[in-house]
Each structure stands twice: as structure tokens, then as C-alpha cells.
Amino acid sequence: MRYELLVGLRYTRAKRRNHFISFISLLSMAGIALGVAALIVVLSVMNGFQKELRTRILGVASHVQVSGADNRLADWQPVAKLALEDPRVVAAAPFVDAQGMLAEGERVRGSVIRGILPERERQVADLGSHMRAGSLASLKPGEFNIVLGSELARALGALPGDKVVLIAPQGQVTPAGVIPRLKRFTVSGIFEVGMFEYDSGLALVNLADAQLLYQMGSAVSGVRLRLKDLFEARAVARELGARLDHDLYATDWTRSHANFFRAVEIEKHVMFVILTLIVAVAAFNIVSTLVMLVTDKQADIAILRTLGAPPASIVQIFMIQGSVIGVIGTLVGVVGGTLLALNVPTVVPWIEHLLGVHILSKDVYYISELPSDVQLPDIVTIGVVSLVLSFLATLYPSWRASRVNPAEALRYE
Description:
The protein is an alpha+beta fold. Helices cover 54% and strands 20% of the residues. It has helices spanning 3-13, 19-58, 76-84, 118-124, 150-156, 196-199, 207-213, 233-243, 253-256, 258-283, 285-296, 298-306, 311-342, 344-355, 376-402, 406-409; strands at residues 64-68, 89-104, 107-116, 131-134, 145-149, 163-174, 177-191, 202-206, 222-227, 248-252. The chain has a 6-stranded mixed barrel, surrounded by 4 helices. It is elongated. The model has no long low-confidence stretch (mean pLDDT 82).
């Protein structure tokens, strides 16, 4: 073992005459551990929120969507067959997307009307698992049933079994003039995915009923695709778009919800920078610790110098001691933060019970439980940043130690 490492570790273990230096060392170590743990927990919770929101959005939206230029696709089977030739695509389903007005008594609400094939829709979306009443299987052709979002149903005052009138924007020419197309539907189900955009503005009907109401014949609006890996959606959409006819185009979920997910990602990066400053403050407490230690050990430094130790060796001794503080603090923070992040769903209810408060009230937030998604790259990044900051904090005090003049240090010894 090199003597610089031996002396540096010995200084770390030794009981110092000045107990204040030991206290500052422990404080620096605890600060680094606390900052690293907080950073891991906060980023894991933000990852959890991002994953939960992505799951809820993709429970209604599709990974990839192929549409016609005029929102009309005459023959969807060849498009679905072409898409399913890609091994990354696991399912395809046609849909009709249109605007409509829903009326129940004197209450009227605008809505997006989506015509679906229930047996195929289950393969590309998870709406079936978000049903509060009824099921998608009730959407049978010719029965003119409708499934409403929970907020939309609440605004209309509609319950399963009630009748609502769907008003299509396409007019019907009669001798009396142009009148809107009306059709009475029976509410057969209510869903709630936890996204206000869908819960308040989406209604589902059978594909054949939508084609009949909107006079589309056998045409559809497009085809929705589900992938094995949702993060390959952009590549699949790009490759599929190159193989489609010029009047068809493919879009993916990262484009249709780009602003939302970009905002979440920016917020995550900002939180990382802010919490890294906490780690930096704790790491630079090492500076004060080593400066006081250098002052306390001037006689030892002078003796080492007179024995032939070069300035570089003195620098290494104190860098080793400061790095040990950073390494121990980082390891404790990584282990503690990871354990806490993995147990957030258990710890938060315990804190709520202890304090008698509810952090995420079901009456206010759609996500009533604090989610957590621990990701290894985040932990590695946080650990590396903490170690680098701790290392940088040792440079100046170590350099000061190497500049100690042996004659001046030993003058009064």
C-alpha cells in the first residue's frame, strides 16, 4: 500500500484532538447522504408520475396511428396487414373519429365520438380495465349503445340505461332545408382513465353505428396500432410512413402528446439541478473540514516534508481523506435513498396516518397515491455527480497543505 493512502486512511480513523473537526466531518458526510437520498427519492417519484400519466394516456390513445389525409381510409384491412408485418407491432384496430353534440334533456355537451370494434379495441388500448360501469362488449352493431367518460356522463347527468341524443354536424337536406342528423343512443357504460381530456370529452360507439351515423359507408378514419415497446413508436411510425401510400400518414404518441411529456421531462431536469445544489453544499463542507484539518496537522505535514515527502504526496493524503468522506456519504445516501424510493407506497400512507393528513386527496387529484419508479441510470448519475463534487471539494485544501513551509510549521514546536 502506498504511504499516501495509508496516512490518509489513518487520518480518517484517528481520534482528533479537535472534536469540532470530527463534528464537521460527520456533518458533511450526513449532508451528502441526505442530499443524495433526497435526489433519488424525488427523481423516482417524478419517474413514477411520468409512468403513471403515460400509462393513463396510452390507455386511451394508441402507440401509432395511421390516418388518411381527409380523415377517411377507404380500406383499412390492407393497412393493418402491412403494419402487422413489422414484428414490433402486436395489434391493429380500425376506428372512426368524429365530432358530435350529446344532449340529455336540457344539458348539451360537445364530444369526440370514437367508433370502435370492441374485440379489437381491447388489443390496442386498456380502456376495458378503466370501466366504472358496463363494458365495451355492450357496443354491439345496430343496438346504438354508447360508453361515456365519467366527467362527460356527470355533466349530462346520464347513468347506464339512460338515453342521450347524438347530434352529428353533417346536415341532412330536406324540403324544409338542412337539418342536423340526430340519433338516440343508450348509455351502456362509463369509463374513467384519470385524464380530464378523455373523461370529459370522449364517447365510444360501435364502428358500424358510427359509420352509419356519419355516412362513411365502409370507410374508417384510420387504424390504431399497439407495439411491444412503446418507446419504439417514433421509429415504427417513420418506417411505416415510408411504406404507406402518399395520401396516408402515421403519427405516434410522442408527437400527439409532445408538449405534455416535454414539460414533464423539463421539470424533472430542473428538479435534478435544484437538488444537486443541496449535494454540492454538503460536498463543499468538506472544504472547511480539510482546511481546519490542515491547520491542525501542520506539524505532521512539516515532518513528512522534512522526511522527503514531495508536495504531490501531501496533496494525495488530504485528497484521500476528503474523498473518503464523500464516498461514505454517497454510499449511505444511495442505499438509504433507494430503499426509501422502493417503499414510497408504504412509507407515505404511514406518514399520512401519523400526521392525520392526506397528501394527494382523491377529491382533488386523479392520482391519489404517490407512485415511484426507481431507475438505475438515475441512481448511477446521482452517485457519480456526488463523488465528482466531493472530489473537487478536496482540491483546494489539499493544495494548501502542500504549500505548508516546514520551517514555519515547526518554529514553535
